[in-house]
Prior knowledge:
Layout: H1 7-23, H2 32-43, H3 47-53, H4 63-79, H5 89-105, E1 116-122, H6 128-132, E2 136-143, E3 148-160, E4 164-165, E5 170-171, E6 174-175, H7 176-183, E7 186-192, E8 203-206, E9 216-217, E10 223-224, H8 225-237, E11 251-253, H9 256-263, E12 276-280, H10 288-315
Parallel strand pairs: 3-7
Antiparallel strand pairs: 1-2, 1-12, 2-3, 3-11, 4-9, 5-6, 7-8, 8-10
Amino acid sequence: MARKRGIWAAAQDASRFSELYNLLWGLDILAPRAADLVKQALAGRGPAAACLLLIDPTAFRHRFVWRLFWALSQASLDISDPGLTATHEPELNGAFIGMIQRAIASFRTPRRSHDLAVVIGDHATLGNEARSGADFGLIIEIDIGDKLLYLVTLLQAKRATSRIVDVRRAAGDSTQRDRLLGSGIGSYLFYIAHDDPRHLGPTVKSAEAIGDPQRVDTIVGASDFAARMAAAAGQLAIGKSGPPYALPGFGAASSREDAAYLLFNPNIPDIRVNNVLVARIGDITREALSIAGFESDWNEVIARHREAVEQARGETGGMGTHEREPPLLSEY
């Protein structure tokens, strides 16, 4: 782990793991022996005991799920620190993005175990929030040995000062929720700023799961951020990304180009393609040139995508749409 975790952190770890287990229930994610021990612990001593078993990375059949879960749990704890001075959503987003980068890059892994990267795309600037409904997007790059897979999601962040919040916000001539729904990969990210024993860290709820935007429950029906991201990545890796296994609010791709397409979808009128921030698991053990090269490779993909979008915009009289069909989940 990035650093030693206290009693409060351990309690949150147990809550997160309990959610992760529920999201992955019935899927072949845990190693067989670990799955049996976890079931016994949950039936006996509860999620806290089960969580202790999951400190061992060998408990997971796919180790990157373990790495992603614990790294994002660290970022979730950091953004929930009572001493954090940021209180407005733009400040919280900037802080959380930085925390995710640091948590991923500083996560200690055995050598040659760099099987995971996180790519962060800003939608809050260049006017994209009004077009996509999102503050930022995430691409999770997963190396499963014989191929690379990409999990993509768009997130609209809200600071929740009570359990029930109103998420009605305009986005251009539409609303943020409708824009997120239109993307097919949109969710709300809630920074929990109210007292609730079930969640202190951020939660997420897909745009599809929101009925009345005036009364959105940030706890019931929502998922812990770290658990949901890890569960979705695990489902993608075992080939269960399509219905009925898919978690709403995510898209999948099998190339960086397709992932960039989902992150900055050219079918959204006048979308602006922004540079991305990149962090690989265990980057702290890498050479500086390797880290810079990896980020440069990703931004070359983004630059080519930007050029294609701008070319299509010129050819379509300024509407900014693109004729290419989005990648299909069934391909992966």
